[in-house]
Design a protein that fits this description.
By secondary structure, this protein is α+β, with helices and mostly antiparallel strands. It has seven helices and eleven strands. Strands 7, 8, 9, 10 and 11 form a five-stranded mixed β-sheet that branches. Strands 1-2-3-5 form a four-stranded mixed β-sheet. The longest helix has 19 residues, at 66-84. The relative contact order is 0.13.
Length: 233
């Protein structure tokens, strides 16, 4: 360490006390102003005078969830708090501020292309529940990926046409009934809806696999997926 760096270190230590300002002390003396690396992402801290603001450096363009990264920051700060007997809940928001991102989740260019390829392969749905059968054509538009702790939502949107509802119990005289696409899900009975959720997992499996194996988006210890296929608003 040269003289200039030593002077800077001393000055930081003199103006930073773990009891008076634990977040500032955390930044200068625990993090040493260095980034945190997580699964190929680099979380860059900056002390503002009131809090630490973090930005994400993503050199390999990975998809990531803000929820997951916030948890990484919380875990790091919790380690510091345990060592210094600092009130974690009191200061955690000051130590882990991140800018909001759309849907709380960034989807990489590669993953977006994979979503679109998979979505365009969905052309026709023929689903039989316990009470009713639903059959329709599907013209894919887009996929929204949202993370809300502890849920990862993957909703596929498109134009539903030629939607027909069939009463399964009416074996002799098949009753066909048109259903408005926007009311497709709410029209289902509770029993059929549970069956539909299982069917969705099969239909959207390629999209599910994009994120379930990405630790930057999904934590298999406590997160769960919510899948949806709906008429575009």
């Amino acid at each position: 360490m040269n003289l200039q760096e030593n002077i800077r270190r001393i000055l930081r230590e003199e103006r930073t006390d773990p009891k008076e300002n634990p977040v500032k002390y955390y930044y200068y003396n625990y993090l040493n102003e260095n980034p945190i690396e997580f699964e190929g992402l680099f979380l860059i801290p900056k002390w503002t005078g009131l809090q630490i603001k973090w930005k994400v450096k993503n050199p390999n363009d990975y998809s990531y969830s803000k929820t997951i990264l916030t948890q990484v920051l919380h875990d790091e700060f919790k380690s510091f708090c345990d060592m210094t007997n600092t009130d974690f809940n009191k200061y955690k928001d000051f130590a882990s501020w991140m800018k909001n991102i759309r849907n709380n989740c960034y989807v990489s260019k590669e993953d977006r292309e994979r979503l679109n390829v998979s979505g365009k392969q969905i052309k026709h749905i023929d689903f039989s529940g316990v009470d009713y059968r639903y059959e329709f054509d599907f013209d894919y538009e887009t996929t929204h990926v949202t993370t809300n702790d502890p849920e990862v939502e993957v909703y596929v949107y498109g134009n539903i046409t030629n939607l027909i509802k069939t009463d399964i119990e009416d074996n002799l005289e098949r009753t066909l009934e048109k259903v408005k696409p926007s009311y497709f899900i709410s029209d289902m009975t509770d029993t059929d809806y549970e069956e539909w959720k299982e069917e969705l997992h099969t239909i959207l499996l390629p999209m599910y696999n994009i994120f379930v194996n990405n630790p930057r988006v999904y934590n298999n210890e406590y997160d769960y997926f919510e899948l949806g296929l709906q008429q575009i608003p």
